[in-house]
Each structure stands twice: as structure tokens, then as C-alpha cells.
TrEMBL record:
Subcellular location: Cell membrane
InterPro entries assigned to the protein according to its UniProt record, in alphabetical order: AA-Vitamin_Transporters (IPR050638), EamA_dom (IPR000620), EmrE-like (IPR037185)
Domain EamA: 10-143, 160-274
Membrane topology value: Multi-pass membrane protein
Name of the molecule in the record: Permease of the drug/metabolite transporter (DMT) superfamily
Domain of life, per lineage: Bacteria
Signal peptide residue numbers: none
GO cellular component: plasma membrane
A Pfam short name: EamA
KW Lipoprotein (keyword) present: no
Length: 302
């Protein structure tokens, strides 16, 4: 077997691991916000990640810190986008559910593509245009289906939660555009360290520290999982893009909501008491699948 084939397989394995981590992330966040507020959870994730990255660079790649002597001010814009993305996404999960948030957040790559077309004059293929249309139709019917399965008293909360996820998607686009520029001049790890550290400091005044000290052992384990999820997912994603074709990696990553939907369905069937049941109806699943299919077509460049 050729080295190229081995690298492709290795890259796709890393992509699958990333999708697996992100598929469980929304579920873990839903459980976390039952005891800890969204800002505190986000601050913990940023703090944990920045400490680990700092330690790694200090021991393994200290020269990467020297690249930050000329401070990348654009990183502050990226960090603002990333921190708002984290808060918006977890708040949306808190107000709605993992399945809903995972589908609506797929608007992020679509928004990124549209911004590239409108502002950066990037060319759009017929397939990408079809993908955008299919995804938009899927979003519309998914929204109607979710709203139809929401009680009258809960519709306002659902709309608010969905708005927060859309805001998170838009903020992710700001982060992604800035990150794309920054990685041309700075190491990825060094940039991530700045982003996580700035976000942690920005959220620090709003953190409920008392709730952290009162966490049970189980909640500590969950919070550590969330911190590790942030680190490992982005590390695996970087390795995936290093070894495999970006198109193949992108398709696998886009399918990660299917993991969330499957796990949430299984948990509802098992009638667990530590997370509210969140099961899509058949029309809801079909519209969700349309969103994912459209997103794949829209981001696929070949």
C-alpha cells in the first residue's frame, strides 16, 4: 500500500475522531448547563485549553512564542468571534436541545460561503448553488417541524434558542475569516493559545466561581471532558487536513450531527433521567438530512 493511501486513511481516521467528539459535544454541553451557566462553562473550556497549549508550547515548541513578538491584533477580533460563538451555541442548546443546535449551526459554513461570494468575489459553481438552495429549504422545513413539536408556551424559548445558535454561526464565520488570515503568518498553536487566553480573560468577570467550587466529582469529569474535547477535536482536525483531502474531511465533519441525533434517540429509548428526551420525527430527520446534504454540496469545491 502506497504512502499516499496510508496518509489518506490516517487523515480520514482523524476526521472521524473529530466528528465523533463534536457529535458528543452538544450532548455534554446540554448536561453541563443544568448545573453551570453557559458563560462559566465557556470560560472553563477556554482556560483549560489555554493552560494545556501553553504547557505544550513551553516544553516542545518554545520558539513559537517568539513569533508573537509582533502581536497579531486581528487575533482579538477572532477571539471575540470565537467566545461569542461558544456562548451563543451553548445558550442555544440550553434553550432548545442538542439536535436543534447541531442542525442550525450548519448555517455557519453556508454563511462563510456566501460571504466569500459577496465580499471576496469567489466564483460559485452550479453544485454549490444547488447546495445552498437545498440547505435553505431544509432549514425552513426543519424550523417549521421543530416549532410544530414545541408547546405554545415554549415557542418563544425555541425561537430565542435558535436565534442564539444563528448568532453563534455568524460569530464563527468572523473567527474563521480572521483565522484564515492569521495562520498565514503565525503557527496555529500560538494563535489558538492567544484566542483561548484572551477569551478566558474576557469572560472572567462574568464567571460564577462559586458554582465551580461546588461541582460534584461527576460534574468535574464532565467539565474536563469538555476541555479535552476542545483540545483534541481541533488537534485531530488539523491532522486530518494534513493527511487527507480537504473535501473528504469536510464531508465527514459536516455529518457529525448524525452522531448527535443517533445518540439522543438512543438515550430517549433508554429513558435516562440525566438529560431531557430529544428525538426528531421522521419529517424532522428528512429536513435535517436535507440541511446536511445541502451543506456538503455547498462547501465541496471539487
Amino acid at each position: 500500500m502506497s504512502d499516499s493511501s496510508n496518509n489518506q486513511k490516517r487523515g480520514l481516521i482523524f476526521a472521524c475522531l473529530t466528528a465523533l467528539l463534536w457529535g458528543f459535544l452538544a450532548i455534554a454541553l446540554k448536561v453541563a448547563v443544568t448545573q453551570i451557566d453557559p458563560i462559566t462553562v465557556s470560560w472553563f473550556r477556554f482556560s483549560f485549553a489555554s493552560i494545556i497549549i501553553f504547557g505544550f508550547i513551553k516544553m516542545k515548541k518554545p520558539e513559537e512564542f517568539s513569533t508573537l513578538k509582533k502581536f497579531p491584533w486581528l487575533a482579538l477580533v477572532a477571539a471575540t468571534g470565537l467566545s461569542l460563538n461558544y456562548i451563543g451555541y451553548i445558550t442555544g442548546i440550553q434553550l432548545t436541545g442538542p439536535n436543534n443546535a447541531q442542525i442550525i449551526i450548519q448555517s455557519a459554513p453556508l454563511l462563510l460561503g456566501i460571504i466569500g461570494i459577496v465580499f471576496f468575489k469567489e466564483k460559485i459553481t452550479k453544485r454549490q448553488l444547488v447546495g445552498i438552495v437545498v440547505a435553505l429549504i431544509g432549514f425552513y422545513f426543519f424550523y417549521l417541524n421543530q416549532l410544530d413539536h414545541t408547546s405554545a408556551s415554549g415557542k418563544s424559548m425555541y425561537n430565542s434558542g435558535s436565534f442564539y445558535v444563528l448568532l453563534a454561526a455568524l460569530c464563527w464565520v468572523v473567527y474563521a475569516v480572521c483565522q484564515k488570515v492569521l495562520v498565514r503568518s503565525y503557527p496555529v498553536r500560538a494563535i489558538n493559545f492567544i484566542l483561548f487566553l484572551f477569551s478566558a480573560f474576557a469572560l472572567a468577570p462574568l464567571v460564577d466561581y462559586q458554582s465551580i467550587f461546588q461541582m460534584s466529582i461527576g460534574m468535574w469529569c464532565l467539565m474536563l471532558f469538555l476541555g479535552l474535547n476542545t483540545l483534541l477535536a481541533y488537534s485531530f482536525l488539523g491532522e486530518a487536513f494534513k493527511y487527507a483531502d480537504a473535501n473528504k474531511v469536510g464531508i465527514i465533519i459536516t455529518l457529525n450531527p448524525l452522531i448527535t441525533i443517533f445518540v439522543m434517540t438512543a438515550l430517549a429509548y433508554l429513558e435516562v433521567g440525566w438529560i431531557a428526551a430529544d428525538v426528531l420525527s421522521i419529517p424532522g430527520f428528512i429536513s435535517a438530512f436535507a440541511v446536511l446534504t445541502g451543506a456538503i454540496l455547498a462547501v465541496k469545491s471539487k
